[in-house]
Amino acid sequence: MSAGSVAVVVTEEIGVPSWDLYELSIPCTVFGKPQPDLADPWYDLRLCGTGAPAADGAAVGAGLAVRTRHGLDDLVGADTVIVPSVPDACVEEGRPLPPELISALRRAHEAGARMVSLCTGAFALAEAGLLDGRRATAHWMHTAQLAERYPEVRVDASVLYVDDGDVLTSAGLTAGLDLCLHLVRQDLGAHVANQLARRMVVPAHRPGGQAQFIELPVPTGDDQGLAPVLDWARAHLDRPLTVEDLARRAAMSPRTFYRRLQAATGTTPLQWLLDQRLGRARILLESTDLPIEKVGELSGLGSANNLRHHFLRHVGVSPGDYRRAFPRATPGPSLAV
Q1: In this model, does residue 60 exceed pLDDT 50?
Q2: What is the mean pLDDT of the chain?
Q3: Has residue 109 got a pLDDT over 80?
Q4: Which end of the chain is more exposed for a tag (fewer CB within 10 A), N or C?
Q5: SS3 category, 118
Q6: Which pLDDT value is given to residue 219?
Q7: Which CATH number belongs to the domain containing residue 257 in this structure?
Q8: Which pLDDT value is given to residue 330?
Q9: What mean pLDDT is predicted for residues 202-222?
Q10: CA pair distance 159, 251, nearest whole angstrom
Q11: Which range marks the domain in which residue 264 is found?
């Protein structure tokens, strides 16, 4: 259970376009603001620039000149390295990325850093060869170019983010926030990630496999949508819920409910339920001393063996190992998540 250091690449000498400030601000917001009541110490954030410091008040192109205290050499030794984006000219026009950036990314990876890209930052990781043979993603508007330029990369244009162990990539904009919260969940546990998401007023967890582009129909004036039935399901995860149960509560046919939920979330009802149950199990393992069998029962995942099966398959560790990784330092939170 450790926060560690996070180094964020800032393309200083090219300038940060105003529309790319969002991706740059995401890791600054998630990792840069101390949250001592959630975890102490919090992350050690450093912004690492690719060029010389800009003059005061200088602007570059259509963007902003950014001065940082750290250079590319400071990427090496960081626990996590994040490339929020690369300039449009490097994506659309094939303008070369700074060779010193590519070299620094390779050295950071060789030193054991967890490498992360948001949106078009995947082009930098791909140029460094860090995505060769791996599944990766970027904003859906740029995935075709990524696949064409780097044929060794297995580009998935449909997902929010891809966790390939020591290399993680995300789609653009809000998907970058989803990935950063996923990193917090990995490092500090589900409770910390959920509380941080609540403070940021964003969904606590959108699985990486959820679709990037979702056809969300505009509800009619008297349509309350799916929120009430999904809230009810979260409050009753210990029950043996079925699609038919949820559809009946939503006053829909199972086929209509299935279609509506998939359109709204990009996932199926059964996968949505599994994600919610795994999230509840994480919270219980982190915040209580309940036996594994009871955790399986309260989360709706059934027996200890069934809980262990799902944890090994979807989390990568057993429930016992997960609990040992996130020891309870304070009294557990409410079971409401």
Answers
A1: no
A2: 84
A3: yes
A4: N
A5: strand
A6: 39
A7: 1.10.10.60
A8: 45
A9: 52
A10: 30
A11: 216-337
